[in-house]
Structure formats: C-alpha cells, structure tokens
Amino acid sequence: MSRKLGHEAKKMVGKNYGKGSGTTEKLLGNIERIAEFMGTQGLQSLRHMKTKHVTRFFDHLKAEGLSASTKANYATAMRTIAHAIGKDNIVPRNNADLGINRIDRYQPKQADISKMEKVRGALYSKSEWQGLAADMQMAFGLRVKESLLSHSTVIRDGKEFLVVEGAKGGRPRDLEVKTEAQREILQRVNDHIAATGGKSLISRHLNLKQALKKQANDFHRSGGTKENGANSHLARHHMAQKMGQDGISDKEIAEHLGHGREGVTKHYKK
Known about the structure:
CATH topology of the largest domain: hpI Integrase, Chain A
Protein name: Tyr recombinase domain-containing protein
CATH superfamily of the largest domain: Intergrase catalytic core
Strand content: 5-15%
Keywords: DNA recombination, DNA-binding
Number of helices: 12
Radius of gyration: 21 Å
Order of helices and strands: HHHHHHHHEEEHHHH
Helix content: 40-55%
InterPro entries: DNA_brk_join_enz, Integrase-like_cat_sf, Integrase_catalytic, Integrase_catalytic_putative, Integrase_recombinase_N, Putative_integrase_N
Number of domains: 2
GO molecular function, one term: DNA binding
Strand order of the largest sheet: 1-2-3
Organism: Geobacter soli
C-alpha cells in the first residue's frame, strides 16, 4: 500500500515538486515517507488525507526527536502534497502549529579553522579547482555551487564587486571585494580558468551536478564533517560571525549571504 501511495504522491505532485524550498531529491524522499506513513493509517488514496492525519504524522516525527529544521522540510513536503490534492487547508500555514519551533532551528556553529585548513590542503592535492572553490567559500562566505561558478567582477563607483553566480532561489547579488586576500584568490581563480580554457572552476569533463557531488564527497572524505567542525557550510558561519564582530548589521549580513530574511542570521551568528 505504501508503495502505491508513494507512486500516487509523485504522480500528483508532478513538476510542482521543484517549487519546494529543499532540493528536489530531498523533497521527493520526504514525500515518499509521508505516503508510507499514510499507508499505515489505512488510507487507500492520499486524496483521503485529513487534518487528523497530518497531525498524527507530525506527532510521529516529534516522538522521533527530529530537529526542527528536518521537521520544517517535512512541512514543506506535506504542503506540496496538500496543494496537489486541492486541500491546502489541512496543513497549518504556521509551522509553530505543527510543533516546530523556529528558534530551535537556529544553531550557530563555530568553525575549526585548523581542520578546515587541512581539508583545504587535501582538496588542493586532489585537484586545483576543488581547492580554489574551498578558498572562494572561505573568502566570501559562498555556497558550494556559488563558489564553483563565481569569478567575474564589476566596477561601480570606483569599487570592485564579485558577481555571484548560481545564487539560491534565483536571488543574484554582488559582493564588494574589500581585502587583498579576496583579490588574490580571485586572481588565482581567473588564472586557473584561463589556463584550463573553461568557463568556470568546474573541470571541463564534469557538468555542474557531477562537480557538486565530487566536491561534497571529497570534502567529506578529507575530514570536512560537522563532527570535526569543518564541513563546507561552516565557511558561511565563519563569515557571518566575522561580519558581526565588525559591527555589520544583520540586514547587511543576510544580504551578503544571499538570504531574503534578516532573521536568518541567528542561524549563523553566535
């Protein structure tokens, strides 16, 4: 029954699943799990879902002790299904009504710089483009995808700005190049691209998806994990914390990181 419901869910959602806030793969996985749970509730079709079934599912997640962030991802998947079956109202609009406390989602982390340096060195030993991408992350607080694609700059009012490519949610932004260290890494990135004849840091024999997967896998194998305080996302935490120490406002930090909400900086800053 759960397999049948899972197939039904994906068929109903169709291309709409791409509108979710998470990655397509994660969202589809969450949708399948919801369908599996609904099968245990005796539903013959997801179209029979009611508010009580939604409540039971999130009570089940709460009992598992999942993080607020993970539960929020399930809320996105649940709303996607509810919309597909024409029952948006069976899922509360506010995550708090599902027992998801936004405050619990903010978990600032402190990067272990010495371990991140070791990961950086390991990536350079694998291939230069991977090490350069890691340097771009640390220098500008970029996401992995942005670090692979961004290298062009523009001059406005006598100031130099990095044009961030591949921004999440289609929110383009320009970051001022303020330090010599930032200019130096940008020069090395552009020298590498010119020498390899590519259009970005991505190796010419890889597409974007393959490059992202390789970078993530090699980062992890090199010790870049949460447990070591050295996973790639910590570069963004480190940047936000430095900006906060320099007296930069939460609004400016959020804009620098490419977030639409000022409050999200609580996730990064100590």
